[in-house]
Design a protein that fits this description.
Largest sheet: 9 strands, mixed
Helix content: 40-55%
Shape: globular
Number of strands: 11
Structural class: alpha/beta
Low-confidence stretches: none
Radius of gyration: 19 Å
Strand content: 15-25%
Order of helices and strands: EHEHEHEEHEEHEEEEHHHH
Number of helices: 9
Distance between the termini: 38 Å
Mean pLDDT: 96
Length: 271
């Protein structure tokens, strides 16, 4: 199989279970780069065994970590995947066909569609899980990740394209793992709000919960995926409400910041 001057970048922390599948799904990448933030399992060894160059970087936050990764790439064109994501055979074939033309063009980035696997199977109707468009293929001199601690995005000005086939995202093997991620993401988002001195509006919390549930369950068609759809909608609404409650606590009781940080690190949720 031909390779292209493309770097696959994956950020890892204790991803030994997933990293091989992710790396092997992009056989045409001329370079595979893993940015590891201190894994205590076999992530590094597995990644190296599957052809990756591993660089250690203490955790900087999602956006800054991705921007650091960009500086470590040997190629100008970069494909960014998370360890629990992997290309479908259809998307791999589409990329092999289109990459020469894309890389010779002046486009800034390409949007890929992400399909979500939840509770062991693909979601069939829930719109954000059916083909969510995400900018993941980009030229490092034409695009940059935002510096957000969480929910970072690729920013660029200029032309882009969207590929047809989807890549897969295994959205946490179990609900406890999902809840751990929700807890961590909420903490990171609240720290961003704190730095920006966002106003506290606790009165919005019950309405935010209700509206978030209605949006996902009905308007985003989660109800058509049965009880899995209910779980998705309830989790999203709970996350929206919990962020506001936690931010209220941060502002009202600043001592909760170091206490929570210590607890999250102690239980392996944050680093």
């Amino acid at each position: 199989m031909p390779t292209f001057p493309l770097t696959l970048v994956v950020m890892t922390y204790n991803e030994a279970k997933h990293i091989a599948r992710c790396l092997d799904s992009v056989p045409f990448a001329g370079e595979k780069l893993v940015i590891d933030s201190g894994s205590t399992d076999d992530t590094v060894a597995v990644a190296q065994a599957h052809g990756a160059r591993v660089v250690h970087q203490d955790w900087l936050g999602f956006g800054p970590q991705r921007n650091f990764a960009t500086t470590q790439c040997s190629n100008a064109w970069i494909l960014a995947l998370d360890a629990d994501e992997y290309l479908s055979p259809e998307l791999a074939a589409e990329l092999e066909q289109r990459l020469p033309q894309l890389m010779a063009s002046d486009i800034r980035a390409a949007f890929l569609r992400r399909a979500t696997i939840f509770m062991g199977a693909r979601m069939r109707w829930y719109l954000p899980s059916m083909g969510e468009k995400m900018a993941r293929l980009y030229h490092r001199d034409r695009a940059r990740w935002t510096d957000a601690r969480v929910h970072e995005s690729l920013t660029f000005d200029g032309p882009s394209v969207t590929l047809k086939a989807a890549f897969n995202h295994e959205n946490n093997p179990s609900l406890p793992e999902k809840q751990i991620k929700v807890l961590r993401y909420a903490e990171l988002k609240c720290r961003d709000w704190l730095e920006k001195n966002k106003p506290v509006r606790m009165w919005q919390t019950p309405f935010v919960y209700l509206l978030a549930f209605i949006k996902d369950y009905f308007f985003r068609l989660a109800f058509l995926d049965g009880w899995r759809g209910y779980v998705i909608a309830q989790t999203a609404a709970s996350y929206a409400a919990y962020k506001r409650m936690r931010y209220y606590e941060m502002r009202r009781n600043p001592a909760s910041l170091p206490s929570a940080a210590d607890a999250l690190i102690r239980h392996g949720i944050d680093r």
